Amino acid sequence: MNFGTRIPASTVIPDEQEIEALHRRYAPNEHAFDLVFTHCLIVRDLATQLLTTTVDADLVRAGALLHDVGVYRLYSPDGVLDHAGYLRHGVLGEELVRDVGWPDRLGRFCSHHTGVGLTRADVVSQGLPLPVADYLAETPEEELVLYADKFHSKKTPPVFVSGDTYARSVSRFGAGKAERFDALRSRFGEPDLAALATSYGHAVI
Q1: Which has the closest alpha carbon to 102: 187, 202, 204, 5?
Q2: Distance, CA of 10 to CA of 5 (rounded, Å)
Q3: Terminus-to-terminus CA distance in the chain, angstroms?
């Protein structure tokens, strides 16, 4: 796929090789690529475990592989990550996906996966560095990718996060967040973290 030529929105779901090529194109260095793309692979694997008959499996896999691509735009030319502006990675990823002409529904996985969803009220009341809007997962596919993302963190070193651990921490993100996570947990169930932790060599917390 030629990244320099726009394609009609909503017509193509890129495959894993095309998405990996996009990551490699925008990653500022090998460390950033390994950190972000490995996390995206893990979220893909987690979401795949939790697939239901009500979701488009190909769309879920592509969305999982793309959801954090905006992190690359937070790196300075000398390879330093802007941690203070990290919350912007979602909207930056949506812009990146739009810039290469990929479907808008893929860009939404980037901007609508933070926490268990950000509302317009969250943006305003918390003074978040985002355009004032709702950033909530709306489709079953978006909800599944958002949920799967909660079970792995790119912290140093990267770790898998158990459902209980995330449930204990999510309330600090605002009223109703814990209830939202519990609803997703009831709907999709919990992934098997042990096998993936062994495969990727990341601890479970």
Answers
A1: 5
A2: 15
A3: 39
DSSP state, 81?
Answer: B
Rounded to 5 degrees, φ, ψ at 176 are 85, -10
Could you give the residue ranges of the DSSP H alpha helices within 50-203?
A: 57-66, 89-99, 104-111, 120-125, 140-149, 163-169, 177-188, 193-200
Please state the φ and ψ torsions of residue 160, each to the nearest 5 degrees: -85, 145
Give domain 16-204's CATH number out of 1.10.3210, 1.10.760, 2.60.60, 1.10.1740.
1.10.3210
What digits encode the pLDDT tens for the residues 20-47? 999 999 999 999 999 999 999 999 999 9
DSSP string, 11-67: S----HHHHHHHHHHH-SSHHHHHHHHHHHHHHHHHHHHT--TTS-HHHHHHHHHHT
Which residues, given as ranges, of the chain have pLDDT below 50? 1-10
pTM (two decimals): 0.93
Token pair recorded at residue 114: 């933070």
- What is residue 6's predicted lDDT score, i.e. its pLDDT? 42
pLDDT at 172: 85
- Cα 82 to Cα 10, 39, 86, 106: the distances in Å are 31, 18, 6, 24
Name the one residue in this structure whose structure tokens are 């158990």: 162
